[in-house]
Design brief:
The protein is α+β, with helices and mostly antiparallel strands. The chain contains three helices and six strands. It has two domains: 30 residues, no CATH class; 72 residues, no CATH class.
Amino acid sequence: MGIDFIRAASGKPYVKRWAKGHERARTPGLFDIQFGAETKIVTAALSSEAQPGTKVILQRCGTEVMVFEGLKSVGKLLDPPASVSAALDASHGLTPGVIDRVGGLGHTAEISF
């Protein structure tokens, strides 16, 4: 009469409630999100036509920051923020970027780098 009787009388063997917690912990959840690298977005004044998705290079030319598509100058950044200068200093004056959006009139573009 003891534990054997209890097990026989209860029918189903006892399973710890937290046993399913191990399976739930392995599945992805809300707090398992991994964020990519931080991207910065700047606005450039375009001097020639550009398309969204075009890969460009931001290059420091004196005090200005120019935008190049290959060897062709596409535009320049008007009043670049300090974060752009820091990114250019960290990468020896050149950094790659992508044109995200072109303004409705085609005079400005948003560039992420």
